[in-house]
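During the no-cost extension, the postdoctoral fellow (Dr. R.K.) reprocessed legacy sequence entries with the updated structure-token encoder. One reprocessed record is reproduced below for audit purposes.
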Amino acid sequence: MERTERPQPLPLLLFFLVAGGLSWAVYQASGVRLLAAFWVAVLLGMALFHAKFGFASGFRRFLLTGESRLLRAHFLLFALACLLFFPFLAQGEAFGQPVQGFVVPMGLALLVGAFLFGVGMQLGDGCASGTLYHTGSGDTRGILVLLGFMVGSLLGVFHLPFWQALPAWAPGSALTWFPSPYLGLALWLGLLGLLYLVVAGVERRRTGRVEPLLRKEATHPLFGPWSLVGGAAVLAVGSLLLLLLQGRPWGVTAAFALWGGKLAEGLGFPVVEWALFHNPAFAERLQESVLKDPTSVTNFGLFLGAFLGAALGGALRFRDLRRIPWTTHLGVFLGGVLMGYGARLAAGCNIGAYLGGTASFSLHGPLWGVFALLGTALGVRLRPACRLENERAPQGGLPST
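Re-encoded structure tokens follow.
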């Protein structure tokens, strides 16, 4: 398909002014490593936008129409990330610096949190990374989702001691289950391959064919669009770079808890006495600039990367909030609340738990995906009440769950 839109000069100028100023501020506050992470996140934001690499939409389309392209792209991304992460996680270091993955115990908190996140990302019309890249590319509804994220994150932090006290199983990483980590790698890739085949089989049964990941359409490395395969490759490499720069996988939602904590503390709430904020390291971040917080800085980069991608593709359009029904405003805000709360219970979102956990060879990653899919089944039923459109089911109506 031939491109008809041209780059937008004024937004591009604005991007370089803001990104340049923020780069200087990040360098002054935190140094060159976090500055590099910021620009990696800009690339990630471009990849999410140009490839339209959705998580919420992927779950929804699979349930409603049987289309599995996005889910299969998820598994491809996870497999590539696992291969890239493996040598560093197996050694526990990278170029002399300690490196560790996201490995989280599996208990009721994880299951409930992932389910609530699944409901929330359908009401919010996007996941955690999706909210940032949608907002950066002009969807102003994302502002309400981000406010909801902060509220839900604070509620999750406040209730976290209750959820953490419940029984949980800590199986560890698949790299430690066997005498050789290479066997763990092989079996983990086998699991991802099996999931790929399962969702492809469901699509074939429901639609009679399997839509290919690579389509014959015009793409451009700078102006877009990108294929899902190209997007998965860039996201996997970007995830590796963040692992090497930060010593841990890519995360998103911890920043929303921090932003909400700063706002609540400014309003007089004693948040420093709450679970997560009572941690000395996190309590210190409450008093520091957000430019010293790696997750905040990479979130800013993700937002600006989507803005850049939209401006390069001539697709930057801002929604007029006044023309959006109040029920949609309420729905996307509540979606943000549910995602913020769910992410704190599940120790992550579609990026930190689903991608980061799976790429860290932790069972909580795939399990997060299963329960987020269950939450999606409820969320798609609530979307019409918020005047959010669903993809049409194959024979009318929603699939039974």
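The first strand starts at residue 93 and ends at 94. Residues 96 and 132 are 33 Å apart (CA to CA). The remaining legacy entries will be reprocessed before the final report is submitted.
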